[in-house]
Structure formats: C-alpha cells, structure tokens
C-alpha cells in the first residue's frame, strides 16, 4: 500500500505507553502494584494528546511513586497488540531510563495520596524473580530492557528532530 493510499483519517488508533525503568543499588527493578492489573507493572502510563513522551513518562512516574526524573533516553520500544478482553488499542510502550534510586529517594518512596485509588503499592524484583510474579510479556519486556541497559544501548528521544534533553522539561 502506498503512502497516498492511506487516508489521514483512516490511520489506526495507537496507544503510546511511557514507562520508566528504575533500579536500586542491588539491581532490583521497581514495579507498581496497581488496583486494576493482575500483576505488577513498570511505573508509567499512556501519553495524552499532544503530550511529549518524556513528559508523560515523568508525569506518570511522579504520580505513581513520587519520584521526580528528567527523562531523555529510552532503552526499547515494545509494540503491543490490541487486547480484545480489555478493549485496549494496539500500541507502543517506550521504556525510559530512570537510573538508580538514591538512598534518600528510597526512604521517601511511597504511593502518593492522589494515586491511592490506582496504585496499591510498589515491589522490587530481581530478574530471577520475574517468572510467576509478572505477566510473561512484562517479564520479557523488562529482561530485554535490562539487556539493553547492560550493553549501554540507549536511544535519545527526539521531538521534531531535537533531542528532548535540549528542550525545556
């Protein structure tokens, strides 16, 4: 199908999830335990209309954990199929590098009051604890992200050709 054959108003609807990988000093991964999913997930959520992806990831991270990050690089883009059970559109999940949590941040980590209806808590998991604790697709996604992190494979997020690290937060 050529570009001209795809009408602008006929393009598929896609959800863009903006997730953040946060590690502790022991290389455990931070997950949010939600009130609406079966298993823990990486902190994050969908970007709103016209919302930059780095801002969406930072907003969701702050809303779910209270952690504040300037996010500019990501490890992976995971294309996810439509979910007929939940009605969720096909989508893309960008997994941003949130770095390693400091001792001070760890001591203050809590579910913000405004998120109490959505977030039940947080859990730290080592990679060898993923199976059984996470949905298989989540475990596979995070393992791939950890491998990219180990190999130092980061991509800059661009906004209209400009690295977001060079733009206002």
TrEMBL record:
Required cofactor names: Mg(2+)
InterPro entries reported for this sequence: NUDIX_hydrolase-like_dom_sf (IPR015797), NUDIX_hydrolase_CS (IPR020084), NUDIX_hydrolase_dom (IPR000086)
Every Nudix hydrolase domain range: 13-135
GO molecular-function terms, A-Z: hydrolase activity
Keywords: Hydrolase, Magnesium
Pfam families: NUDIX (PF00293)
Magnesium is among the record's keywords: yes
Name under which the protein is recorded: Nudix hydrolase domain-containing protein
